[in-house]
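Hi P.,

Sorry for the delay on this. The queue was packed all week, but I finally got your sequence through. Input first:
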Amino acid sequence: PVSSTLYGARFLTGEIGGSVTHQCFYSIMPANKHDRKYWCKIAGSGVCYTVISTTGYTSKDHAGRVSLEDIPQNGTFMVTMTELKKSDTGTYRCGIGTTNRDLYVNLNLTVLADAGALRPTELIQGELRGSVTVLCPPGDTQGGEKRFWCKLGRTSCALIADTNGYVGKSYQGRIFITPQESSGAFKILINDLKKEDSGLYRCGTGSLSGQNSPRVVALQVTAASTLPKRPKFLSGTVGGSLSLKCHYDPKGNYEKKYLCRWKEASCSLLVDADGFVHESYKGRIQIASSDQENGTYTVVMSHLREEDAGWYWCGAKNGHTEHTSSVKLRIQKENCSSQDPETSTLVKPTLSSSPATYSTPTQRSITGLMYVMGTVTESTSTLLPTAPPSTFVTSASKIYRKSSRESHLLPVVLPAVILLIFITTLALIKIKLRKETGEESSAIGNLEAAPIRSDPNPVKEQTMEETLSPEKVHECRTDSGKRRWVF
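Then the structure:
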């Protein structure tokens, strides 16, 4: 089956007696390489009649003046028509497939008495995730008009980027329109190539519909790539530093290596291997090392600022060709170890294993009970007089260590509770028996004299019962150091 995309110019112009050559571009896939290629002309009925195909067929009306050359390794085939006639004007189709209704591209051929100088479509191939350089011919030598790059569609050319600051969403950070040279020529640099970048493009000056745009480029991005995926984002901290490793083809002979800052389809040079450093970056940026064998060089940036955030380009220049890659830098504000004491001061709590301390005119305390590892333990934290209660934080790890020290009380407390329940049960049975025998008053007197009575401070007990959650079991200390349970 025919696979993926096919594209070619939508308009073709020739002159009577002259010739035209049209290129059709297709994805380099096994199915496309070996399938039938054809060139047909659409009749008034809508049927596309074959003019020539790779099966060897040629129509009688075009015999001897049409040829088709397929170049599968480049993913293109070329159709050349000679001895043009006025009747050759019309709509044609170049395509791939067993019928003339499979994958195809329509185009309009116009044959004029004098078509003027025609420039053939230029094929530029790029590698997935790689970069390409397109040389645009001289236009406005005064540099007063905008320079642009657009993608040809069925009826128009969709703007990708221009020197007025426009950049399409999918090209943010990866297209650069260079300044014009003395001849008026300029370059289009694109990196991080994607499959969907394949297609027909036009570069020029002035308006998209103007005539200062003679160069049509067919960009073909290969599906396979030897280039590894690399991070597209770097993070730094205000005041900190970072290093950026730039890659290039070690087999190439590059006379210039650099780092520039990208913004709105332009890129300002910051540093290069020849020693240049941008005025605003002096003392903060340098090319620290270079490894020619592996094709890398490292740029170090220090004393980072918030305004350093944005896109950066690595570049290695060899004549008119430039190997580029892009990365976006994100800058985070410095993490503060201390904060405004008036808003969020933290006071480090101190844990005490001594009996609970209650509020006095010079200090405050927070007393609470926490379940840790199935054991009810008591923790007391003392705050400095100046610390507001809302800023108090208790360290869970410290509470856990304290609970571990007190966990030895479990074997003592549990038998005591069982014994208390047992004595209470016996006392209730004894009261019931004495009521039946008329000795109720004596039984009550004996109950009041039970040895489990304690004498807590009424003020402290009230304070604790108001502070503690009624949904939990709490343990409180008395002045004598004994424990009592409040449910």
